[in-house]
Amino acid sequence: MWLHILKKDLRLHWPYVAAVIALKVVAVWTILQMGIFADPLQLLSLKALIDLAFAVAAGIAVIVAVQSDPLVSSNDDWLIRPIRRSDLALDKIVFAAFVTLLPTFVFDLGVGLMHRLDALPAIGAAAYAALVTFIGVGLPALAVGTITASWRQAAGIIFVIFLTWIVGSSTINYQTAALSSWPVQLAFQTILVIAAALVLGLQYGRRNTAISRRVFAVATICAVAVMFMPRTTGYQIQHMVDDGKVAATGPIRLSFDDQPNAKVIGKASQYMLSFIFVPLKVVVDPDRIVTINHVDVSIASGDGKPLYRGTILLPSSNPPHQVISILGNTFDGASNGHNPNYQAVNLPRDVFAKLKNAPGRLSLTYQLSAYAPAATTKATLPLGVPQKVAGFGICETRLNPDKAQVVDLYCIPATDSSNCISATVLDLAGASIGAPQTSCSMTSTQWGLNTKALTDPGQFVMDFPATSGAAIRPLTLTTYRIASHFTQTVVVPQVRLTDLTGSTRS
């Protein structure tokens, strides 16, 4: 019986289904247009917009399908027809899967196979991405549809949730945990699954709308609370479970550089923020890669009284005309001896104005991850030809569009590999030329599956001089696995903020 109801829903609501599939087709087209390179920023923005539109269209389709046989009203003919409520519930669940889970799995897997990723890991990654879409879009839409009788009611509930999120985002004074971290994702998805099961059971089993709405409200509050979990809390939970504890030390040493030659060139004010630049010494174990996940800053007076606590926004590039070298977010053995390195610290204007001339204690607390080598291979990649590299994914070399004598290497990591890759150029005799160059994508690997490898563009790994002729030099490629997570704190005992905007001396 449920199959007949599903066929009726598909015939009745086919425009919504067609819109969902069309948006997925456009998303695939955008991904294929980007290819290994993500140079057109417009395409990246378009892809994000299409993904959002797909989620909205799929949610609307599910709500419309559920409300075509509404549970809230007592004047609908399905109540007197010989239809089991379990069949009706199964129909709506399958319809939700049809417009969320199935398109995501089919199209994401198709893109992965077009990129020549290995089939079994790509299937696993696509299945996980599809399940997350079903839980994050399909189940909430099912719950909203079953507790409302009209679009006005559904839109009102969605608006209240959106308004709550806006108010929370604008009022909290700390950085929230990333939704991509597994404790947040697991808690969020668990809340959605339990709430949807309770609401659907109550509505299709007992038609108890009042209790169902209370369950939905409580679940919404819990989900919003998880989304606003402080980043530091999420980090501590994740790594205490992963490692048993968060280590206090690791394969990197960060310390304040108080040498007289450590100078900062530039000014502090930029836009609505005030920047200070803390010169640091960086020493990394040669066989490790270290990434910065999060940085907290605190300022205290000379007697230890807290004056300010905040989060550092990791800059993607050097603020123009301000400093010589900004501390990046990925380190390896090649980072050693680079002087100077500066941690850019963004402060609110009022905080900088109030504290700039007062001697105080500045502390930078880094939450870091260390990676150890997992696999190494040699490859020679012809220019402009995507090449499958076993255990790595797909790599390609191309001439730099701005520098004709420079070759850029990009890689799409495999769906079951780490996001960290290093590369070394070899001469014809097989000897290394120069130090390895490292690239770590900021997207995290969930449950051993790198789902971003299916749909995201490849990451830049390195550039190196071009050679004459069609061939290029062979490369040594190394992937890395997570080894540990740890924290380090850099303390500047006595400093004025103004001293960190011009030149810094001991």
Question: Would you spell out the secondary-structure blueprint of this structure?
Answer:
Blueprint: H1 2-12, H2 14-34, H3 41-67, H4 85-99, H5 101-114, H6 119-146, H7 151-171, H8 182-206, H9 209-227, H10 231-243, E1 252-256, E2 269-270, E3 273-284, E4 289-301, E5 306-311, E6 330-331, E7 341-348, H11 349-355, E8 360-379, E9 387-389, E10 393-399, E11 406-413, E12 420-426, E13 432-440, H12 452-455, E14 459-465, E15 475-495
Antiparallel strand pairs: 1-3, 2-3, 3-7, 4-5, 4-6, 4-8, 8-15, 9-10, 10-11, 11-14, 12-13, 12-15
Please provide a written account of the structure.
With 506 residues, this protein is an alpha+beta fold. It has three domains: 2-229, no CATH class; 252-370 and 485-500, Sandwich (Immunoglobulin-like); 372-483, Immunoglobulin-like, CATH 2.60.40. 41% of the residues lie in helices and 26% in strands. The protein contains twelve helices and 15 strands. The chain has helices at 2-12, 14-34, 41-67, 85-99, 101-114, 119-146, 151-171, 182-206, 209-227, 231-243, 349-355, 452-455, and strands spanning 252-256, 269-270, 273-284, 289-301, 306-311, 330-331, 341-348, 360-379, 387-389, 393-399, 406-413, 420-426, 432-440, 459-465, 475-495. The strands form three sheets. Strands 4, 5, 6, 8, 12, 13 and 15 form a seven-stranded antiparallel sheet that branches. Strands 1, 2, 3 and 7 form a four-stranded antiparallel sheet that branches. α1 (2-12) crosses α4 (85-99) and α5 runs antiparallel to α6. The longest helix is centred in the N-terminal third of the chain and has 28 residues, at 119-146. Residues 266-272 and 316-322 have low confidence and may be disordered.
